Every structure is written in C-alpha cells, then in structure tokens.
Amino acid sequence: MAVVDDDTVIREGLPYLLPELRVVLAVSSVEELLAARPAADVVLLDLVLTGTGRTGVRQGAAAVEAVAAAGYRVLIYTNERRREVLVGCMAAGARGVVHKAEPLPALAGAVAEVAADRVVITQALVGLAELAERRGGLPSLTDRQREVLSARARGEAFRSIAERLFIGKKTAEEHMSVVTAKFADFLRDHSPADLERELGLGPGDLLDPRRPR
Q: DSSP E strands: which ranges in the chain?
C-alpha cells in the first residue's frame, strides 16, 4: 500500500498502527507518488492535500483521476462527507471511500477489499445506491441483492441480514459486493448533475450527507 496524505501523523503513524498493512511509500502529494511509481496494490489517498500551505498540487477528483490513470486502485481516506464530492471521486475512478473517523479495523478491512478489486462505499453512498436502484439505475440486480442493499441502507448489520434471510453472513457480504461494484460502474457514467436529474434530486441533496434516505 502507498499513502498520500499531507498529515505527517497519518503518513508516519499508519505503519505502526496497522503493522499488518505493508506501506511501501508515504508521501504528501500525488506528484511525489507518480514520480516514485511504487509497486502497490492500493493507494490510500486523502482528498485535501494543501494543509501544509502548498499550492498547485492535485487534489480531490483530479488527484483520484491521475492516480487511477497510473494503474493504481484508489481508496479515498478523508473527512469529507458531501455526496457531491464523493460521487465525483468515485466517477473519477476511486474504488472506495473510508472516513478517518472510522476505527482502524474498518480501514484495514477497506484496504483488503480494494486490494482484492472490490468496491467499498460509505453508509451515505449506500443510501444513494438504494435510490439509484429504485429509480431504475441498477436494473441488473437480483431480488436477493436488492434485499441486501435495502437492509444495508437502513443500517442493518450483515449478521442480522444473514439470519433474517436464512443465508450465510459471507453470502450477504458477497451480494453487497456485487451491488457496490455495479453502483461504482453507474457512478463512472454519471456526473453529479446527471445524478440529480436521473434520481430526481433537488438542489443541495448531494451536498447534504443526510439526504436522500
């Protein structure tokens, strides 16, 4: 894994906090990453990289696009919660989003998922995925995948879903993995403006992490 973050504590602290993750490079800018071209399964990327006062560095969706174009799987590691920003980054090629407020095991799990070429999305985006499904944006889902998506959008844990649907927990997780991959493909074909039109969202809905539900 490579880390791109302008926070020194995160860059230098993650190898000690998560020793099971092998960090091959930790830098403060996308430009440094692309110059070094490390062999890494995942790039853990912060979205705001000007905390040190530097200007002219790529960040946000532009950074995601540059890193993904270089052949890396991008996992966004951020405090950003606005849907408009997150869906724009997913459309630019990110394979996942994990918030810095999440516990460290969640981060380690997200890295493993993205390294295995699966997609990881936050709860706010799960709700958006459910809305996309209801509006016909994910027509190829099976009935069981829709059931799991609906349950996850309500915040139900995989173990509870599995017990209620009489399936294994791993099976429930695999159903959701298929859903998130299809949702990521959907986002790559839709700008935030496209989403507003196609999903019937009002102005500001994508900016508010609490909407739509």
A: 2-4, 25-27, 42-45, 73-78, 96-99
Integer angstrom CA distances of residue 76 from 71, 107, 126: 15, 10, 16
Task: Give residue 93's region: left, alpha or beta (phi > 0; psi -120 to 50).
Answer: left
How far out from the chain centre does Cα 178 lie?
14
- pTM assigned to the model: 0.82
How buried is 134 (Cβ within 10 angstroms: 0-12 exposed, 13-18 middle, 19+ buried)?
Answer: middle
- The residue among 106, 48, 107, 35 whose CA lies nearest residue 78 is 48
Spatial distance between the Cα atoms of 170 and 80, rounded to a whole number of angstroms:
29
pLDDT in tens, the chain (213 residues): 999 999 999 999 999 999 999 999 999 999 999 999 999 999 999 998 876 566 778 889 999 999 999 999 999 999 988 887 888 888 899 999 999 999 999 999 999 999 999 999 888 789 888 988 888 888 889 999 999 999 999 999 999 999 999 999 999 999 999 999 999 888 888 776 777 777 766 555 554 444 443
